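Troubleshooting log. The previous structure file for this entry was overwritten by mistake, so regenerating from the original sequence record. Sequence copied from the archived sheet and checked twice against the printout by T.R.
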Amino acid sequence: MKNIENIKKTSQLFIIWDFDAAIGQINSSYPYGYFEDSIHSEISNVINILKYASEKNIQMIFAITGFAAEKGTFPFHIPELIRKIYHDGHEIASHSWRHEWFPFLNLKQIIGTLEKSKIILEECVGEKNVVKGFVPPFSRPMSWLKKGAFSLGDRAIGPTFKGNDIQKIIPYVKDCGYEWMRVSYRTLFEKLNNLDRPRLLKRKWHNENGLICVPNNYVGFDNKALEIINLGIENRRDIIISAHPSGMSRNGSENIKHFKTFIDFVTKKRNEKKIEIKLLKDVK
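Regenerated output below.
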């Protein structure tokens, strides 16, 4: 992955799934908000995503928690499903080991989750050096002080906290063998001027010390996502659309009805040679 978002004849679309799996759902919910049925629902949604992707000949990126790839009891460990995702031609990325909140991690914990998740996922699929991307859980940190972005959610203060600024974790992500990382942030200027997601398509990908930082453009598949696709095509920009498999069962922008409409829409645009649907590991 050497060149970054050069001027192209067509836009490139990258679809990233934040596949939290059981450990991610447990760590993302309050004790009174967790239901085991949601784990089974998420797995069923992933199976449906794979079927629909196969029908439409589309490849996507699945950022998966390393804990889910360990050997163990279903549904908390799902190595067979992860291998199916990989052998169906999709890209596997790390979503950390157990979906930790990065702003509150110390250096040892950051390196541990980056290294272990990559090793476990690669052992699961049976190939080395295939997990090239890292998708931070909770999309944290969202602060990038170098670029004027600050989020109150990254409020861990002190020299021992190395995960409260995107700039701080970049060297560790790179040193652990990753080539790209998805980043989510809004500058103070963007917040004060209420600049929306389509405007953020103007934000370029960044090569930060050898690590490609890929800005997330939108979460979900509703009409706003279609607007972003059209804007990307018009301006020949690359587009990152993210979602959670668990969100397909909820009434929101990630709902399965929106997903199917979105996939039909981008498939049509692909057939018209207006957009390419690609994997980040294949970007040169």
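Helices lie at 21-28, 36-56, 79-87, 107-125, 166-175, 188-192, 223-235, 256-271. Archived copy saved in two places this time.
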